[in-house]
Amino acid sequence: MGSKADDHQRDESPLSMSWSVGRIAAVVAMLAIIGFWAWVFSGAPAKQNPDYLDDREYATALEARCQQLRDDIGELPSATELPDRSERADVLDQANALVGDFIDDVAADAPTTGSAAKAMDGWLADWRTYLGDRERYVERLRADEGDRFYVSKSPLGDTVDETIEVFADVNRIEACATPGDVG
Domain extents for the chain? Predict the structure, then answer.
């Protein structure tokens, strides 16, 4: 047995680095956190957006139809540059008829099963709401109740023109965003 001096010396010496259960758990936890964030930033957990259309041939055809809508609207006088409310309303009526035809055409050719059908149903519902907003705007123009175009909110909380654009961005079909002719 050692003397009291030896015991006192042991008490004052630096703590030894022993691997206790707590230290092992702390090291494992830190390594797990580092590993988790490395995995997240690597992009490994990324999922495909549910609005993404896997059938790229369909997406290409959809973009062509969207571009046709833009071209057809582009042939009309620019409603935003017409000073007369009645003339602006007349042009927007024509554009709204084109938008309505567009929605009907897309709906007729839309997928009917799977996630693509669900995505297209939501997107077309947003387009129908957007068309209704355009039609109400024309009514306000004709009734001289204001020049402001109001866009409804989607069930997701954004305005429907934003959700339409997000769908177009997700699918890389830029022509399928709202035409922007109302102002």
Answer: 18-47, 56-176
